[in-house]
Design a protein that fits this description.
- By secondary structure, the protein is mainly β.
- The chain is 13% helix and 41% strand.
- The protein is built from 1 helix and 6 strands; from the N terminus they run E-E-E-E-E-E-H.
- A 6-stranded antiparallel beta barrel has the order 1-2-3-6-5-4.
- A hairpin with a 6-residue loop joins strand 5 and strand 6.
- The longest helix is centred in the last third of the chain and has 14 residues.
- The two termini are 31 Å apart.
């Protein structure tokens, strides 16, 4: 499938990553480097490129961290701090387009 490209920029680093998960509240990214040696208390600039949408930028902070047992990488949860309405709309449209289509009514299709 199409991947969500995420460029994360901190005070002294920049990494191009791919999202595992996204919502209007934040984004989960696999970070092969684990951001080793980086100050994770600082906010980072995040440039997000959703498939079929223009890129948009926001600020985020690391809120969660879990190591992937099968890889030498870590999953970081970044919480958005100032996501624009445009960004929220793009993420909402992206998420809705991937939700399974559920038929309302309960009966079998005829």
């Amino acid at each position: 499938g199409e991947r969500i490209e995420v460029r994360v920029e901190g005070v002294d680093f920049q990494e191009l990553l791919y999202a595992q998960d996204i919502s209007e509240g934040g984004i989960g990214v696999i970070v092969p480097s684990g951001f080793k040696g980086r100050d994770l208390s600082e906010a980072v600039e995040v440039l997000i490129k959703l498939p079929n949408h223009a890129p948009f930028q926001t600020t985020a902070r690391v809120r969660h961290l879990s190591s992937k047992s099968n890889q030498n990488a870590s999953l970081f949860g970044l919480q958005f701090e100032d996501l624009s309405e445009d960004g929220k709309n793009k993420i909402g449209a992206y998420v809705r387009a991937r939700m399974p289509r559920v038929r309302i009514g309960g009966g079998p299709s005829r």
